[in-house]
Amino acid sequence: MADFGTADFRNVLLAGSRSSGKTTLAEALLFHAGEISRRGTVDAGTSTSDFEKEEQAHHYSVYSTLLHATHQGKRINILDLPGAPDFIGQAIACLPAAETMVLVMDPEAGIDSMSRRLMKLAQSLDLPVAVVVSHIGEGVARLGPFLGELQEAFGRRCLPINLPTGKGTGVIDCLLNGEGESDLGPVPGFHTELLDQIVEIDDALMERYLEGEEPNYEALHEPFERAMDQAHVVPVCFTDALSGAGVEALLDTIVRHFPSPPEGNARPFFMGEGKDEAPFVYSDDPSKTLLAHVFHVATDPYLGKLCFFRVYQGTMKVGDQLFIGDGKKPIRLSHLFQIQGKQRTPVKEIIAGDMGAIAKVEDLHLSDVLHDDHALDYVHHKTLPYPTPLHALAVVPKTRGDENKIAEVLARIREEDPTFEAHFESETHELVIQGLGEMHLSLVIERIRNQGVEVETKPPKIAYHETIMSRAEGHYRHKKQSGGAGQFAEVSLRVEPLDRGGGFEFVDEIVGGVIPKGFMPAIEKGVRDIMRRGVVAGYPIEDVRVTIYDGKTHPVDSKEVAFRTAGKFAFRDAFLKANPQILEPIVNIEVTTPADAVGSITGDLLSRRGKVFGTDVTASGTALVRASVPLADMMDYEPALKSMTKGRGRYTMELSHYDPVPERISQDLIASFGAQRS
Ligand SMILES: Nc1nc2c(ncn2[C@@H]2O[C@H](COP(=O)(O)OP(=O)(O)OP(=O)(O)O)[C@@H](O)[C@H]2O)c(=O)[nH]1
Ligand SMILES: [Mg+2]
């Protein structure tokens, strides 16, 4: 293996919407760099990146994959991210690990909501973006208008650095070359437009340029790279990963023009907590103390848990003693791997700027910081917020006794996926899994089945909440005298609604010690018990302040268990008098669709109790519909959208807020809770 220095690495993310061509492009990059001798395909399940069982079965990416290629003596690390919105957790986790996000876009799909979302995420992370327009061999007529749409959506800074030629069979450079013809017109116009934009970043270069000097690579490299860092230029390249057009040029572009670790924007590391928190400035020097960050967790059939990390400072070496965050217990590194898809090659060390994986360290988790000096104990990394898993499904094993096996699989998935949750509901004895959509949950079920466990699923449960609309008082006296020691506690409390999102507040207003302080935690526990389970419909209670203002104690019989019971029933008493209300999650949805389907899409959203905020139609005939809809009515949206748009519609969905449910639904929920309990 050639030796690489920190500045020799180029770390790129292949991001983009579903089926835009990321995995196929990754395969082509490896092939053209001579990393693989046969080019596999997604459709045949033979690509280097989509190697997991579920990916091969469905012909799309489910997990992020780390790949690498060597080109012109430089090492390119490639993270191929899944494009389906249901797997965005996998993508978000990887974003900080690279210097550049390559947004792969199929011009046929237009500027869809996933691409917009990724663009926003990159912006919030200060992550330079380049756009790769894929599928150029399928027709060049669409490419000109697409470039226009791209600039309309993301600004005039989206400028080609090469252009398709020969009807999409090749590309021609327009950064360092200002001559020739392309499928989009004469090269000089594009060349000038790009240079005009780049020189704005550098006064000296601008001066020489205006005097007529044609800048060469040496003169342009630094300003171009700075323009990318500052999002002043979003370079656009053209490829066809199936025919190979533009792939070699993309390898050249990555190596020659994209930021290396020392050139890229610093990643968000911080030191200290609260008001003492300040950015932690690391140095890309491999000889300094180690700073690494875990951006991906996977399960390997032989090695078990694999934690993928990026080294920012120092060198990670086999045999080293490392610390995880502020943990005092050191771990000793016995294996380090370099990763190429499913291939894991043991290596001795990984230096600043590079990525690798550690196996079998159970204490290591996604987002952890690794270091080798206690001075870095409190260095942490700011992760972007993950979307809330709103889709829920109850899972029941067909064979009794398989619960443990299921729990094991689910625990593994929770390690890997920050947008997946699972919990056991003691009321209904159900194992409930939560994810971002139907696709997400069906993949989880598939993984359970792949372990040889047969399960049944029950219709998705919506994460309703209960709350109150007014203030009320409640009272309960708990008295038990059966045989031995008695129990006594009396609690009077007040409940008041908090603003939406206010959660829970517990206030002790007892004067004169009528309830000793020592019993307060027991009362709070009793209140929390019932808040978790709900009062009127069996859903967790939110946005309530509970104030304990009076009560009574017995010198002998008062004990914690008695106050826990009294707290619970006093709360129930107050809650029922406080105008209880069931709230439902409302999601914001963005649909991208061919414009001719807009009518049916908005009509359908209205029939789902949706509110349509707006519809933007671009010149090319793609439309973006924005709406908010109750989540309960979005359960079968995927197939519905598919049939309305002949499979071409795409949507993304995010939790917006909670709203009261209509009376009819509220009554149904209360009735079914009553029936369950009787
Ligand atoms: N003609 C042509 N087809 C392509 C190109 N890139 C991808 N495809 C095809 O498009 C389909 C989807 O490609 P993938 O590489 O799986 O797309 P992806 O972006 O990885 O998809 P997800 O992982 O689901 O987000 C496959 O059938 C590919 O063969 C391209 O540049 N030209
Ligand atoms: Mg893929």
Write the layout of secondary structure elements.
Layout: E1 9-15, H1 22-32, H2 53-58, E2 65-71, E3 74-80, H3 88-94, E4 100-105, H4 113-124, E5 129-133, H5 143-154, E6 158-160, E7 162-165, E8 170-173, E9 181-182, E10 185-186, H6 187-199, H7 203-210, H8 217-229, E11 234-238, H9 247-257, E12 269-271, E13 278-279, E14 291-300, E15 304-313, E16 315-317, E17 321-324, E18 331-332, E19 337-340, E20 343-346, E21 349-351, E22 355-359, E23 369-371, E24 379-381, E25 391-397, H10 403-416, E26 421-425, E27 430-435, H11 438-450, E28 455-458, E29 465-468, E30 472-480, E31 487-497, E32 504-508, H12 520-533, E33 544-552, H13 560-577, E34 580-594, H14 598-607, E35 611-617, E36 622-630, H15 637-644, E37 650-660, H16 663-677
Parallel strand pairs: 1-3, 1-4, 4-5, 5-11, 6-11, 32-33
Antiparallel strand pairs: 2-3, 7-8, 9-10, 12-13, 12-24, 14-15, 14-23, 15-22, 16-21, 17-18, 17-23, 19-20, 25-27, 25-28, 26-27, 29-34, 30-31, 31-33, 34-36, 34-37, 35-36
Helix pairs in contact: 1-9, 12-13
The structure holds guanosine-5'-triphosphate and magnesium ion.
The site of magnesium ion (MG) has 7 residues, from α1.
